[in-house]
């Protein structure tokens, strides 16, 4: 096997495979090192809910045959209210989607090595020049990219990312059949992706039902084990206990059964990224992390970060004599903040504030959303402060005060 490439990528998830796809299409020699065995790829660990939107499908040329169900609306639920917004999307079969990206990038010329667990960077003169994998195997590249997600074996050792434990989100999901998709008293979930804010079910997080056709759906929940979770959680409850509780108490699941082999678990970090690159190195996808903090959308963000890294690598490699120094790779940070996650810090603050609210305030939020126009909602979702302010009233003063105190404590903690 070759041991020198233009680009070495660790991780064959959506970010890594898309980055390889773009680089191979430009004619670069690229190798992807993937921990999982080829025959088992992808296993069901660290699974995405795979809800996305047509903009991602069109931007990245994703075929229809990886789609389980096209959707027409997004539904937000609270314990007693709900809000429906017309917005087309797609629920993907995540395994098929990942295999498509790998196969397509391989056809374009990318090399894949499975059963290849990356362990450490190879350093020369203070710069990364390659990676070791499977103990003593080595491969070298002009640029190295970490797309391994929260494991981040390269980014952590290079001091590029600092994934904080208190920002670690965990999730669980099952696929079911026999769900009452249009239950009286609830929103009609036919061709819909539903997100529910309810601390009884997901303290410090949210749960979901994504329709996948007829009476089937993906059902799951996630939360961050932070102050909000501690405030609303039940003593001794695990994430499995919360999901079981929802299944036992929600009448939509009364006749539902779990599909064999369709249990998925995942994790990510909900925090603002710091440094994302250094000399000859970039971190992409959930390694950064790139997950949208507000609604948890990760596929498009990961794909966009992979594309931004590929464009950045191209800007150096296509010019003789241009070294991929930290200064020359700075364009990656610019593209990330412009295209991948604009207003990332504002959206993170909105997320932290959202999870502090009580169930009663979630009910009020649904009523507020029903009275506001779509333009205001779109602007608020994009971090526009005036539009965000319209979502609050005088009764929210205690909530805002608690939020301000939490932020002050976080700021002080970072200084100590």
From TrEMBL:
<dbReference type="InterPro" id="IPR054884">
    <property type="entry name" value="Dggglyphlred_Halo"/>
</dbReference>
<dbReference type="InterPro" id="IPR002938">
    <property type="entry name" value="FAD-bd"/>
</dbReference>
<dbReference type="InterPro" id="IPR050407">
    <property type="entry name" value="Geranylgeranyl_reductase"/>
</dbReference>
<protein>
    <submittedName>
        <fullName>FAD dependent oxidoreductase</fullName>
    </submittedName>
</protein>
<dbReference type="GO" id="GO:0071949">
    <property type="term" value="F:FAD binding"/>
</dbReference>
<feature type="domain" description="FAD-binding">
    <location>
        <begin position="5"/>
        <end position="306"/>
    </location>
</feature>
<dbReference type="InterPro" id="IPR036188">
    <property type="entry name" value="FAD/NAD-bd_sf"/>
</dbReference>
<dbReference type="Pfam" id="PF01494">
    <property type="entry name" value="FAD_binding_3"/>
</dbReference>
